[in-house]
Design a protein that fits this description.
This is Phosphate regulon transcriptional regulatory protein PhoB. This protein has helices at 13-25, 36-45, 62-71, 89-97, 110-124, 158-169, 177-185, 194-207; strands at residues 5-9, 29-33, 50-54, 80-84, 102-105, 132-135, 138-141, 146-149, 152-154, 214-217, 221-224. By secondary structure, it is of the alpha/beta class. Helix 6 packs across helix 7 (177-185). It starts with a strand and ends in a 6-residue tail after the last strand.
């Protein structure tokens, strides 16, 4: 069985080596890059299954790298887990807005790191859901991983695709953030509810004119509805 390849982008060699040792012992194949340029060379040579990306790097920051990779079609869906010593809420949100799937604040335990890596990889795995869902002019097809609005294709990120799929399959029902974390993310023991808000915001941006279909129900959560004029 092929081991998942994890690219560690971290300028502190002692931290990178500790992470690499733990990943090897737990069935992963780690590769280390100490800055953005070497990380890009590794990605050009192979596409990793996941990137552990440090926020503070010499040269380009982790945020800049994440934004760059999200704009490139080849790396657009590459899972990114940000490593940061910044625990402030605005910094965490900035990391998610830049395209990271999740973040982990230093210092962290090996168990927490492995749990987050596995959760991100599970999120990216194909789901057993209805292949095609249509709500009004919005169509989601899991077989081709495409979303269309009035026949035009929309660019939707992988986590947002999964979130949209769940909301469309349970249209008109209100789901709390905790329920969405449980149903969409699966293992949310380390994921904060604020993460849901960031991904909903990103989903609405992707939907464009169809964004009003994703409604915020104050004090309750979110729902997808066809009962709006968009």
């Amino acid at each position: 069985m092929k081991k998942p390849r994890v690219l560690i982008v971290e300028d502190e060699s002692s931290i990178a080596e500790l992470i690499a040792v733990n990943l090897r012992h737990n069935g992963f194949e780690p590769i280390w890059a100490e800055d953005g340029d070497s990380a890009q060379r590794e990605i050009d040579a192979f596409l990793p299954d996941l990137v552990l990306l440090d926020w503070m790097l010499p040269g380009q920051t982790g945020l800049q790298l994440a934004r760059h990779w999200r704009k490139d079609p080849r790396t657009k869906t590459m899972p990114i887990l940000m490593l940061t010593a910044r625990g402030d809420e605005p910094d965490k949100v900035a990391g998610l807005d830049a395209g990271a799937d999740d973040y982990i604040t230093k210092p962290f335990s090996t168990q927490e790191l492995l749990a987050r890596i596995r959760a991100v990889l599970r999120r990216r795995a194909p789901e057993a859901v209805t292949e095609r869902v249509e709500i009004g002019d919005l169509v989601l097809d899991t077989a081709t991983h495409r979303v269309t609005w009035q026949g035009a294709p929309l660019k939707v990120g992988p986590t947002e695709f999964k979130l949209l799929g769940f909301l469309m399959q349970h249209a008109e029902r209100v789901h709390s953030r905790a329920q969405l974390l449980d149903k969409v993310w699966g293992d949310h023991v380390y994921i904060e509810e604020r993460t849901v808000d960031v991904h909903v915001k990103r989903l609405r941006e992707s939907l464009g004119a169809a964004a009003p279909m994703v409604e915020t129900v104050r004090g309750a959560g979110y729902r997808l509805t066809a009962q709006v004029s968009v």
